[in-house]
Amino acid sequence: MRLIPKLNGLFAYNVDTIFGLASVIMTYYGVNYYLSGLHSYATGDPVPIPDWVYIVVGFIVMTSVIAYFKKKKYNIS
Fold first, then answer.
1. What domain count does the chain have?
2. pLDDT in tens, the chain (77 residues)
């Protein structure tokens, strides 16, 4: 991200960190418990994705958008 001029800033790093951490956590649980891969612990029919996952993703996206507009309003670098 540091090589792309528009993504070189504290706000972009913070948002990317939140989505990166969520990606790692979902990869761990998704691969191990939801997908039936070679090394997974999931057996039988796949478990449906809980509704709260969609709510949390929506909340993170909404919070990021609000933070972006507040950053522009107060001209914080």
1. 1
2. 778 888 888 888 888 999 899 889 888 877 777 666 566 565 666 667 778 888 988 998 999 999 889 888 887 65
